Amino acid sequence: MPHQSSAARRTIRKAVFPVAGLGTRFLPATKAQPKEMLTIIDKPIIQFAVEEAIAAGITHLIFVIGRTKRSIADHFDSNPELDTLLRSKSKIAVADQLNSIIPKDVSCIFFRQAEALGLGHAVACAAPVIDEDEPFAVLLADDLMSAQVPVLKQMTDVFNSNGRSLVAVESVDAQMVQSYGVVDADLLAVGEVGAVRGVIEKPRPQYAPSNQAIVGRYILDGCIMAKLRDQKPGAGGEIQLTDALSGLIGDPGLDAYRFNGRRYDCGSKLGFLECTMASALEHPEFGPRARTLMQSMLNENN
Question: Domains along the chain?
Fold first, then answer.
């Protein structure tokens, strides 16, 4: 096997999708289906994250699933029977669309997280296919990103220029910091990168080092896998990814990136509804009609 150059080894080709959560905030809808398979109009939220990763050059999609998440694997697998049926009914465009969800040069890998032991534990489940000197991405599908240039593509461009681990951040209301990992870093404008001096998981507002919260996009040095393997439980008795990030600050280095785009928190009901409404308004087929319907409903309720 030919030796890989250091440049090739540092190219980000793998992305981890931790999708083993139970989705309790969306019960009863998630009793028999993964929350990641809930749809925004006609597309499951996990597909948005996968498309973002592929647009950033990812060729290995690594899903960490739970025992009730088989439909995620089914969604990204081929379905010859459905393909034949659609083509027999002359629905060629639909068949081609389904076949193009995962391009031929992209592979899907699945790991089972036997217990819900935290985000850090979920990421560590992917360690068998990630070398310790290999950078990789992590995408949390709950955070659906809308951007002209896909957010992960923005981040891989930054990584390619400086080679340091990177977390996406955005400013949140001071009272909301206790729901996030929060970075100690200089206040960043959109598109700016800054060195992280510290990271705290879900701090009380009075103890937060800033209001810059980590949201669901990461580019991490492969050495974090060893840190996660040896890490003790943190907040909530779980293996927190935020705690392992602290170990990257000195060496090899950790930066915060204020991404250019809009985040929808599809892990909350209101955020999911907001994303659905925004997507309806932007839909190429029925966007204008959706706007008329929403305006009519507002007028009726005033």
Answer: 6-267 (3.90.550.10), 269-302 (no CATH)
